[in-house]
Amino acid sequence: MLRPYPRWIRPGTGRVAVTPARAGRSSGVRWRWTTTWALCATVACGLVTVWALRGPERASDVASILGGAVGLFGVLAVWVWRVEGRRGRSSGTQVDEAGEALARTVRRQWEDEAVLRQLYDPAPLPVVWADSSLPDVGDHRPLTGGPVVCRADDPDGLAAAFGGLARRRLVVLGPAGSGKTTFAVLLVLALLRTRAPGDPVPVLCSLTSFDPAREGAPEWLRRRITADHPALADADTYGTGAVDDLLAGRRLIPVLDGLDELPAPGRAAVLAALNDTLPADAPLVLTCRTADYRRAVAEGGVLTGAAVVEPAPVRADDALALLRLATRPPSRQCRWDILAAHLAERPGSPVAEALASPLMVALARAIYADGDADPGELADTRRFPAAEAVEHHLLDALVPALYGRARRQDPSRRRDADLARHHLGRIAAGLREQDTRDFAWWQLYRWLPSLARPGRRAVVWWLVTCAFVVPAAAVPPVARGGLPWWYVPLAVLKAAVVVPMIALAPRVAASGWAGRRPGTAAAVVAVAGGVGVVPAVGLVYGGSPTPAQFLAGAAFYGFSLWLVVLGAGLPVPPRMPSRGRPTLRHWRRRLPRALAVVAGVTAVHALVFAGYVNPGGRKSWSELLLPGALLGTVLGVALATLAWVRHPATADDPVSVASSVRADRVLSLITAAACTVAFLLPDSSARAWIWFSGTWGDVLLLTVLGLLDGGLVGLVLSLAAHAWSHYTLARLVLAARGELPWRLRAFLADAHRLGVLRQVGAVYQFRHARLQDRLADGVRFPGPRPRPEPDRPGSRTTR
Questions:
Q1: Sign of torsion, CA 78 83 85 86?
Q2: Between the ranges 485-494, 568-577, 726-735, where is the mean pLDDT highest?
Q3: Which residues pair with 256 in a beta bridge?
Q4: CA-CA distance, 495 to 503, in Å (whole number)?
Q5: Residue 180: count of CB within 10 angstroms of its CB
Q6: Which of 23, 199, 472, 681 could tie 195 with a disulfide, CB 3.0–4.6 Å?
Q7: What is the reported pTM?
C-alpha cells in the first residue's frame, strides 16, 4: 500500500515530525550523561582510594587526582554534547534565509551554464511542448490539471504552464536529442525569474546517483542538494535541518533529470520510491526518454499526479531561421542557401529528418554557423543516405570544429583537435566502464583497480609512504657521516603501519555504528596501526624489549595514530569532497565547542603522557601533568583548527568543479600539516622526558628529528582520508599511461568552455549522452572493471 506521506512528515503541517529514531535521541543523550557521571565518579573514587592507601605524601597529588577526574568529565561531556547538538532544528527565519540563498545560488549557476550552452544566443529553439498522446503514461486528468501547451522560447509561458498544473508535477518525455535537459534548464530559469520571496525554489539534480535500494527519495534529495550547495550545511546560519524543512514545507521543486540514464532495472524502482517516499502533492519535474519511461511505468506505475508532455518535431523553417540568426557576420548567411533549397525541394530527406532534433540543430550551429565548414555538404544524399549518417557526421565533426575554431581565435594556446578527441574518447570510455554519465573528479580513483580495491590501495599508500619516509630517514645519519644498516629498514617498518589501517578502514567506514561513534571508529583503525608497529618496536629496543616496553610503545604509538585518524577521518576515499573555508563568522557560537575540544584532548594527553613517561611511579604525577597538559593543548588547538577550516562555504560562493577541487586541496594540506604535528608531538615529548632533560628545546629537537624518522606516516594517513590526494594519484597514473592529459582539470575546463562538456554542480557531463556514446565507440579503457566497495557513510565519522 502506498503511503501518501513518509513517516518523517506530519500530515497537514508541512513540518518534520518526531519519529521513533528522533525520539530515541533524548533517551540516548540521557543515557550518555548518566554514563558520564557514573564513570567520572567511579574513577575519582578509585583514585582517591589509591591515594589514601599510599598515604598523603604530597598535597599536590590530590590536585592531580581531581584534575584527572575533571579532565575525564570534560572529554565525556564533549562526547555527549556532540549528540545533543544534533537535536537542534532550523527556525522559520533560518529556513526562509536558506531558501533565498539557495535561489540565488541556483539562478547564478544555471544562468552561467545557459550562457556557455548558448541557450539564449540568439534565442532558444522554438520547440512546442504539449500533452503526450501516449496511453497509460500519465495520471488521471482531475489529478494533473488542464491541458499543457508551452514553447521553449517563451519563459513566461513555461512558468505559467507549470504553475497551472494541479499539483505542479510534470514528466518531460522525448526521444534522444529532443531537448529534455534544455527544457529543464529553461524551466528552472523561468521559475526563478518569476519567483517571489517565499515561493518554492527549483533545483536541478541528475538522477544518476540515486539508488532507491540504499536510501529513500527525501534522504537522497537532502544529500544531493547539500552536496551541490554546501552553503546549506552551515548550521550556524541555517540550522541543522534547513533542507529537511524546505522539502517538508513544499518549498523546493526537485527537477530530476535523466531517469533513462539509470540502469533499466532501477527505473521502475525510482518511480516507486518517488511515489512511496514523497508526498503526493509535492512539486516535482522528471525527464526521461519516451520508450524507457513507458517500460518503467509498465513495471512500477505512473508518477502520481504528474502531467506528461512531449515535444513536437522541430520545423525545418524554424531550424534554418535559428541557424541563420546564429551565423555572423550576416554576409555569411548565404552559405545556408543550398541547404535551404534542398529542404524545400525534399522535406523528407535525411538531413530534414536529422534536423528535426534540437540536439542536431545545436551541433549544426556549432559546426557551421560558428565555424568555417560549408553546411551545403549536408544536402549530399550519396554521402548521407540516411538520417543516422547525418547524425554520426555531426557528432564526429563537433570536437574538431570546436577546437579548430578555438585555435584560430587564440593561436598562442596549443590545442590539438586530434589529441583532444583521443582524451575525450578515453574519458567517455571510462565513464561507460563505470556505468555513469557524471565525471566526478573525486571518483577518478575507481578507474584504477590498484586504488579502487582496499587491499591494493593499502599497498599503494605504503609505497607512497616509503617514498616520503625512506629519503627523510636517511638525512640525519648521512649528515652525521654514517648510515646504520637498521635505519632504513626501521623507516620501512614504520611506514608499514599504514597497510593494516587503510585495508581495515573501508569495513569500519561501511559499518552502521561508525557514523554514530567517530572516536570508536578511529580507535579501531588506530589499534590496527598499533599492532602493525610491533616489528618496529622490537627493532628499536634491539630485538628484545621487555613486555612493558613492548606494550607501552605500541600503545603510545596507537594513541598518536588515534589523534591523526580522529582529526583527519578514516583513511578511505570520501564519498564527497571536503568543502569549507576558514572564516570568523559565528565565532561566538563555535568558540565553546572549540574550547571543549581543546580541553578534552588536553586532559586525555595529560593522563596518557604521565602514565607512559612514569610507569614505575618514580616521579610525582604533578610534575608530569603540567607539561602533558601544555602539549595536549597544542594538540587540541590543532584538532579544533581542523574543525574551524571545515566550516561550509558562504551562500554566495558558486559551486563548480574548480572551487570543489581547490577547497578539498586546501583542506587536505591544512589537515595533513595539523595531523603531522598531532602524530609527532606525543612521542617526541615522551622521549624528551624519558631520555633527556625534558626541556622544551628537547621537545622541539625531537619533533624535527621525528619528522625525518617516520613522522611522515601521519601526513600520509591524513592525505589518504581526502579526495584530492586519491584524485592526484589516479590522474598522474592515467596521464603516465597516456589515457588522460597531464593538466586534466585545465583540459576539462577548456572542453566545458568550448561546449563539449556541461557542468552540473561539481561534476562534468558530456553535453549529451549520444555524444559520450559516440566518442566512446571503439575505445577500450584498459584494465578490468574494479570491484565496488561499500560507500562510506556521509557523516562526520569519516571526515
A1: positive
A2: 726-735
A3: 205, 286
A4: 14
A5: 27
A6: 199
A7: 0.78
